[in-house]
Amino acid sequence: MAKVIVNPTETERCIESLIAVFQRYAGQEGNNCTLSKTEFLKFMNTELAAFSKSQKDPGVLDRMMKKLDLNCDGQLDFQEFLNLIGGLAQACHASFTAAPPATHLQHKKI
User: Fold this and answer.
1) Which one of 13, 52, 103, 107 is separated from 39 by 20 to 30 angstroms, measured CA to CA?
2) Which residues pair with 76 in a beta bridge?
């Protein structure tokens, strides 16, 4: 019987991307299932550079890491990483829904 190839959906591709990004940074210093503080900072400064560079307080990333590290082991596992991604997604969604709708230019016939 022929194997049916199904193209992944947009959501499935997004999940695959999140896993791939996590794995790209995790394990550079040892454990490939967690992000160390250094790996987290590399991730933030590369993948979320606009956010990182816009922070006026140099300690904000350290505090983020501590807040995300729910089991206080000094590492972020994939679930803790997803908490970051989910929080950022919620903040972006709130920002988009609070913004006034785009004004549409009407073209006048001359």
Assistant:
1) 13
2) 35
